[in-house]
Each structure stands twice: as C-alpha cells, then as structure tokens.
Write a structure and sequence with these properties.
The longest helix is centred in the first third of the chain and has 41 residues. This protein has 271 residues and is an alpha+beta fold. Strands 3, 4, 5, 6, 7, 11, 12 and 16 form an eight-stranded antiparallel beta sheet that branches. A four-stranded antiparallel beta sheet has the order 8-9-10-14, with no helix packed on it. The chain has a two-stranded antiparallel sheet with strand order 1-2.
Amino acid sequence: KTMRQQKVSSEVDVENAQAAHKTRQARHQVNRALLSQKEAALETAKVRLSYARVTASWSDGTNGRFIAERFLNEGAMISANTPIVSVIDIATITAVIDAVEQDYFKLKTGLTAEIESSAIPGRIYQARISRIAPMLDEASRQARIELELTNTDFQLKPGMFIRARIIFAEHHDAKVVPASAMARRNDREGVFLIDHVNEKADFIPIGRGFTEGEFVEIASPTISGDVVTLGHHLLEDGMSIILAGQTKPGAKPAAKSRSEGQGATKGGRQP
C-alpha cells in the first residue's frame, strides 16, 4: 500500500511533491533550451573564428608558393572580394621577350632557348618557347614571345631582366669569316679574297648565313683562302695589293688579311 493509503502522509504532502517534481521538469527543459542556445553560439563563434584564418590549396599538391605582396595589415576590416595577399608560384616561370620582324617567322613553339640574368652570373637556364603572339605591336614592330622554364632553386624572381638566346638551327663545318671582313660594293655584300699568285684582291659577293658573335657564315658561294679584314674600304675589285711581309720600292703598307675558317655556327639572337 501507498503511504497515503496507510495514512502516513497527507494529501498536502502529495501535492507538494508533485508540484516540486513539475518544477524540476520545467527547470530541466529551460536548462536544455539554454544549452542549445550556448551550443548555437559556440558554432557561430567557430565560424567567425574561421574567417580570421585564410588558407589556399592547389590541385597539383605542390607547396612551392610564396606571398609576393600583402595588401592589408593585421587587424584591418575587410569586406567580401577584398584582395588580401598575392600568392605566386615561381617553380615554373614564364619569361617574356620581344622579337623583331626579321626573327619573328623563324620562331616556333617548342624551340629551345638559353636564359641568362646579370643578377646570377654564370647560370644558364634551359627554356622553351611556349607561346608566340599572333601579331606585332604597331609602335615597336615587335612580337611578344613567352618562354617557359623551370626554376626549382627559386633563384630567378619575377620582374628580373633576362637575356634570351634562341637557337633556330645549327650548321656544322660552316665557312665563316670575321665580321670585319664584310664589305659592300655596288649594293652587294661580300669579301675581298686575296689572290696570292697575282697579288691582287678580288671582290666576291656572298650570301650571308648565320651571324655568331664576331663571325659571319658564308652560305654561298664556296670559297677558300685569305680575306681582307682591315683597310678594305680602300680597295676595289681586282686592285693590286702588297701582301704582308712583301715590300716594293715606294709601295704603301699592305692591307691586312685573315684566312676564312671553319666552325659550327648557331642561328641565334639575343633580344
């Protein structure tokens, strides 16, 4: 039997106990509601905290990125789409050069090039042409050429000046003469070839090949012998000369000559 049935507790005690039980239940519901509010506030705070941390990721998974420029200071207020920093990848660099008209049609994507910078003496980077502009600038008459190269040591930096040497082709066993031997007569370019037997200088028109430093390739015709490298502005075709080491009474000093030679030339230009 219950305590009430046994006359141990009164009706008042039962009612008081029931009221206290209901009060505790209501307080429990209130506490649960307060807990839900606090949990919601915590999630909101976590979201706001995440806004204070900016992260970036890349599909290729590499980590060779650098912050090139910071646009804001710590504590600054920003709005959506406001740039914060500039992040760059310099493991692979695009070098830009300008090609003049006479070289433009010699260039093709995939051609190799050698890149140098005066800031890194003695270091040569291998590159390849990745893009050739389809038009030339109207003012400069030059075309934009993009070269792609690897920069795994991160020595090259964006904005550096470079020199690019592009190899169009290679001619082995080429006939070359010093550039100082080149002369022009009657709007034709050529060299003065020494005729040792008759002691005279014959003007030989030539077809110019590649120019490599101080040497010029003779593409045509096939010639052999010594050419005049100094004083040829005083000569005409077939003019008599006095060879070095040979003198005649009352003769003027002889024009100096130099033998044409053989070598390997590369068709290249340094923009």
